[in-house]
Amino acid sequence: MPHPLLKDAENKMDKSVENLQKELSGIRTGRATPQLLDVVHVDAYGTKMKINQLGNVTVPDPHMIVIDLWDKSLIQTVEKAIMASPLGVTPSNDGRLIRIPIPPLSEERRKELTKVANKMAEEARVAIRNIRRNVLEALKKEEKDGKITEDELHKLSDDIQKLTDKHIEKVDQILKAKEKDIMEG
Description:
four-stranded antiparallel sheet; 4 helices
């Protein structure tokens, strides 16, 4: 049975990795994906909603996102929300569908976005290392209080280090995939 502190640490580290994935999905590559719109919130029906809750989002080609709203009266509202978002795109509509052209990125912009992705990944790594540090401190306190032996402390310290390494490796893989996406997009 794993130590409760390790189980808790693993859950927190998993959350750090998931959070990084969510943040990175908001970085626009030169390629259109429905996830790009996750950063857009629309005031509809008295609440803030994501676009995928208001209609179908499709990607007919790598440089176009098409939104087919279930309630056509929201077209103007959705367009305004997209233009106010950090995406930097300009939607157009024909009264039925909203089309969002995704222009290819310049080399300079790709490098900027790669730096942003690296910064996000470093924040995730720091969060994971902080979780490790907190667990090690708690384990040392348990050993001092006689709850675990010195041998158990060493084994648990090794286990938390392996857990940390595994999660840092995940962060690195996610970052590498995103960088590839940005540079190729």
